[in-house]
Amino acid sequence: MLEWNKENRFAAFVAATSAAVFIIDLRHGVHRDGFLEPAWSMLLYVAFPLLLISVLEAKHRSRAAVFAILGLIGVVAVVSYWSWLDPASDYRIHRKVFYRDQYFVQHKIHMVYAAAICLGLALAAAKSGKTDLRKWGLGLGDWRWWVPRTGILILCIVPLIGLGAVLSPELREFYPEIKKAKESVGGLVSYQIGNGFYMAAWEWFFRGFLLFGIYRYWGTIPAILMQAYPFMIMHKTKPELEMAASFVGAILLGLFCLRARCFWPAFLLHWILNINMEIVGFIW
Question: Buried-most residue among 74, 123, 127, 227 (CB within 10 A)?
Fold first, then answer.
């Protein structure tokens, strides 16, 4: 019989939180919107897990609970309204998702406000409860080690992206991903600014919450694999070459972030890689 000890309780927490985030996002998530999607991702992938962490690991749980409860109410309200309560629901044509007059589509800034408020409450809960978020990859880690190495890797990305574009016309046709980024330099820049927040949310969830959460009790190999596989699955709508590369990339990024003791290198590398893909697709 499985013993309900601290290790297994922690495993249940990581698994249940991850499952809830994946299921909601895969079924109801915002797809390829340069303004709404980053806010949704920050709300679901960052604020929600952080609010739970701030209470679970708080040294002063009663202090943290006040902020955490308010934040969780906000997350649940927004996610529930978008996913189930808005009468103008989404419809699907050939696996592409379109939205008809949903409230947050018409008032995108309100989703941004909700994400900012819930994220602020999560950080306030962590601070008041004295929760150490560095255990989850949110500190600067060993920045003297990872900053120069990340810079070198970034310099290596540019020619590799050019080579990938030459070898794969599918990549050139796929990027940029949204219409406004294809039409003008200004549209491309504004989309990538929003995409930076989206990438930060994704990278902290995979190379922070999942990676460091699993590594704490089960070690390197389970931590690497258990964040790499769902990361690849979340790329199922991308070109085949990119989906295959995402699994290898997730493994390498996971190892790099464990050594760096933070998720920031993965965010910078992933975002700059995406920027280069979009620029190549825009120019080609």
Answer: 227
Domain boundary among 131, 154, 182: 131
CB atoms within 10 A of CB 29: 19
Q: What is the pLDDT of residues 193-224, one digit of tens each?
A: 999 999 999 999 999 999 999 998 888 999 99
Q: Which of 24, 32, 71 is nearest to 51 (CA)?
A: 71
CA quadruple 23, 24, 30, 34: dihedral sign: negative
Same domain, 152 and 265: yes
Mean pLDDT of 237-259: 85
Q: What is the pLDDT of residues 123-133, one digit of tens each?
A: 999 999 999 99
- 4: pLDDT strictly greater than 80: no
Question: Can you give the residue range of the structural domain that contains 276?
Answer: 138-284
Q: What is the pTM of this model?
A: 0.89
Residues 101 and 142 grouped into a single domain? no
Written as one string, the DSSP assignment of 101-154 is: S-HHHH-HHHHHHHHHHHHHHHHHHHHHTT--GGGGT-S--SHHHHHHHHHHHH
Q: Do 121 and 227 fall into the same domain?
A: no
CB 201, CB 213: distance < 8 Å = no
Q: Which two tokens stand for residue 48?
A: 């929600």
124 shares its domain with 221: no
- Same-domain status, 118 and 145: no
Closest CA to 142 of 268, 257, 269, 272: 257
Residue whose structure tokens are 């978020």: 133
pLDDT at 149 over 90: yes
Are 104 and 165 found together in one domain?
no
The torsion angles phi and psi of 2, rounded to 5 degrees, stand at -70, 125
Count: domains in the chain: 2
CB 39 within 8 A of CB 110: no
* Residue where a domain stops, chosen among 131, 159, 176: 131
Mean pLDDT on 146-156: 93
- Pairwise CA distance, residues 12 & 17, whole Å: 8
